[in-house]
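Example record for the data management plan.
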Amino acid sequence: MATVKTIKDVDEDAWLEFKSIAVRNKMTMGKLFVDMVEEYKKKTKEFWDDILKGPAVISDAEARAMEETISRIRKEYGFRDKKWH
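Corresponding structural encoding:
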């Protein structure tokens, strides 16, 4: 048996658009919602995989130089030195 859920802060125009998308795709609104959630999860995972597992933006040498510069500046202005790895 289907259960009824409430979604807060959905205005009438958005709700009608959601219903019309479901009708155009010949699916129930529940199925459309599940598909949208799955697509969101997939795209979010792809996004973070691209960032975390993609090519490095800077080289290891540049990263070390940046860490040294940051440590020097922190020490110069009286902040605790950040422990890198």
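Summary line stored alongside the record: DSSP finds three helices and no strands in the chain.
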